[in-house]
Write a structure and sequence with these properties.
The chain is α+β, with helices and mostly antiparallel strands. It has eight helices and five strands.
């Protein structure tokens, strides 16, 4: 996550919400300090049950950049968001609930959103991850690709193919790819290709 992205976003008047990961160690440390020392916070909790899982998610919004040490980041960031998840999954072999905890840190260039709005935005991002990126990786083997020269072109083609498949009402992409691979007449039924 380069600073340039935030600078361009600020110039254009757009808001940006990004997860901070280990590849930004100083910023991640600053976000951890913000969560530890900032007392003025806003929080929202959700509880979900489904697919043999129980998940409690608490989103805490710190509308300050006081503990950001890098002077450029300090000017660009307005909010640090902390997402704390407690997940319990039922283990059918042991007949016990296995629990895990995870803390994620996000930064945003505006402080005008509430904890509920940040919670929804972060949760909806995972919907995109599950519907697009996961399908591209499992059905099209995108992460295993050995293409090194201009890989973005192949990524565009994969997105194009996925869009055609979805427009034609396919819900199981892997199964559709397999059926099309063994029967050319099925491939010709996709209207969007041959119109």
């Amino acid at each position: 996550m380069p600073k340039k992205t935030f600078e361009i976003s600020k110039e254009k008047g757009n808001n940006i919400l990004v997860q901070v990961k280990e590849n930004q160690p100083q910023l991640l440390s600053d976000c951890t300090d913000t969560a530890r020392f900032n007392t003025k916070t806003e929080a929202h909790s959700t509880y979900e049950k489904g697919h043999g899982r129980l998940e409690t998610r608490t989103v805490t919004v710190h509308k300050t950049a006081n503990w950001i040490t890098d002077c450029v980041w300090k000017k660009l960031l307005a909010t640090v968001i902390v997402v704390f998840r407690i997940r319990a999954s039922y283990n059918t072999k042991t007949k016990q609930w296995d629990t895990s905890e995870e803390t994620s840190y996000y930064v945003c260039n505006t402080d005008k959103y509430t904890a509920i709005e940040f919670c929804d935005a972060i949760r909806n991002h995972w919907g995109i991850e599950n519907c697009n990126h996961y399908v591209k990786d499992t059905a099209f083997k995108e992460d295993a690709s050995k293409i090194r020269k201009k890989p973005n072109r192949m990524a565009i083609l994969r997105s194009f193919a996925l869009n055609i498949i979805r427009v034609n009402g396919v819900t199981n992409v892997s199964q559709a790819l397999y059926r099309n691979a063994i029967n050319y007449d099925r491939l010709r039924k996709y209207d969007a290709i041959f119109d």
